Input
Amino acid sequence: MKIRPGRFNTYLCLLFGIALGWGCQTSHTPKAPKKGYRLLRLHLEVNPDGTGNNSTVTIGRQSTFPVNVNKLPFVDENNLVNARLLEDNFGGFALEIRLNRQGSWLLEQYTVANKGRRIAVFAELDGFRWLAAPRITKGISDGVFSFTPDATREETEKLVLGLNDTVKKLRSRTTLNDPEPR
Output
């Protein structure tokens, strides 16, 4: 068997060139996920203390306002049981999330201890952004958190779809499941 070094090196260079991106260039535009968005996190409003544990974020797109939040969320998508879109009689909508046992305990603990503060909601939509920051007026002990997101109905529907899909995947991976949602 004969190996021709010139031909081998040409093929090797061509292979490396393609691997480095010298081949055909296609325009790559990020597409919205077909099955929805999968990230939702709740952060507590805190006083700025000069450490790296908190930061000021901007809530809203048209009428913005700053909120200083703890960088670590106290509830995330791992604590969800389901999400749904609520309709009102005036054509508006809200997002309702139902939390598992651990998430319910955390939500109750944080809302009872921090009345008057805000819960900042961070989610994945077309990009990652802050959707809302409702003020805590009373303790939430039933594990159901509802808010009006700063998002379109279509974005909110995709978020609900993606969150419920994430819940199904997480439930299938664990043997210690909470009871099914009511």
Notes: Residues 153-173 form the longest helix (21 residues). The helical segments are 5-19, 101-113, 153-173. Strands lie at 40-44, 54-59, 65-70, 80-87, 93-99, 119-124, 128-132, 144-147. Residues 19-33 have pLDDT under 50 and may be disordered.
